[in-house]
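Section 5.1 Outputs to date
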Amino acid sequence: MSQRALLVVDVQRDFLPNGALAVPQGNEVIPVINRLGRKFAEIAVTQDWHPAGHISFASTHGKLPFQDTAQAAYGEQALWPDHTVQNTPGAELAPDLDLPHTGLILRKGFRLDIDSYSAFLENDHSTSTGLAGHFRDKGITDLYLAGLAWDYCVGFSALDGRLLGFDITVVIDAVRGINPKSMAEMSQRWNEAGVRTISSESLLGR
């Protein structure tokens, strides 16, 4: 019998409206996620947790966010505004997130010289976050993903989750994205990888 869990990705202040790296309408996922949380016995939450001077910050390289890139040991690195810096308000989980029986809060992206979009593998595609082992120890086979952002951290978490052998479903109204073009590209990658999508209504009923 399959066991399922809800994986909530990076619902943090800096990714909400007026945050340092705001995802358009990012706040709209919160009430949906709160409703979903009441239907899952197992919940894990990820938290982007960057040190100052992180490799993904444009300011670290004296370059422009969203436009320039940097070369990392693992390849080309997109550059962003400084965001989710450790122990700053922007790194905090959204205050309206109400998931009291969360079993794990996993911090990622805390290594200075490597970024981490995925909840499972850092951007070198080999360094594990330990999340897969956590779920396997609990006998979890089916993961339902929600959070921010569709085209980056949720997207790559879904792909890596499939790669690691989990059945992955993205709750489509519980995610928001940064860019329509990259959202469409990620959706195509999901289709090719066997990632499913579902609405929260289908899970919760009305």
